[in-house]
Amino acid sequence: MMTPVVRPDRATTTPAKRTKGSPRYSSPAARRRSLTGWAFLIPAAALIGLMMFWPMFQALILSFQTGRGSNLDWADPLTFNYDRMLDDDIFRLTLTTTLLYLVIQVPIMLVTALVLANILNNPRLKWKGFWRTAIFVPAAISLVSYSLVFRTIFATDGLVNDALIWVGFIDNPINWLGETNTARLVIILGLLWRWTGFNVIFYLAALQNIDPTTLEAAKMDGAGPIRTFFSVTIPQMKPMILLTVIMSTNGTIQMFDESYNLTRGGPANTTMTMSHYLFDVSFQNNPNFGYGAALSYVILIIVAVLAAIQMKVGDKRD
User: Fold this and answer.
1) Does 55 or 1 have the greater pLDDT score?
2) Does the model's pTM come out above 0.90?
């Protein structure tokens, strides 16, 4: 029997495994692609650094300086502006007021948005497009415009007092914007009206991405609508709920427009937020940019700490 002869040019060989140091990864074409990617990234990164991180660094330096206007010197000690906050009664009041808005308004807003989204997601709901648009419209209205409308409605001779007197709930008009508790209530109502529909859109998107087979399985197992909502729907919406909680918390901590346009911080600064106080310190009366920069960094730290806590509590991944 003759042994078959294998020609060298037809021999089967196993190709060597390519490594990052092989010519495939160091070819001119690969290098050109890499350089092209960096050419697109570097201008954007430079703009972000120039427009965001550089001003943040300048604000940090500014927070260690004192003086009026452009006549600034290094503080002695350097932490003078931060130490001043401990004895600043207005800052403590604005911090308390801001946290009060956060604790009351954010949970009510998100729970209401979740309920409305669940209702609007019902396939048997009539005029679905109309209701969705009507709920979202407040989020598209100018903050200044809606603040002026609320000031008019809650004025002493406004629509709210006229309606309450007409139905017999009150005998004399209420000074809604002149009393601390009622002025804070008006701001909370304004926030709820303005931002609830904004969060409804996020929850609607999350509800439409839920696997319908899980809902059918819960129904076959005998779970009612409420049990299905809390045991099946809510767990699948956790990432979106966490996102809205973080956004709402950050927005409330940095809130300015409602405090400034609705009440101007009154009466006696009891409705003023931290961002409103930061604006007054930096640009009203005798501007103090050093103390204003220190206030901005305290707000940043509060936002970062709350966001980190929410991420830690809300993220259950191993």
Assistant:
1) 55
2) no
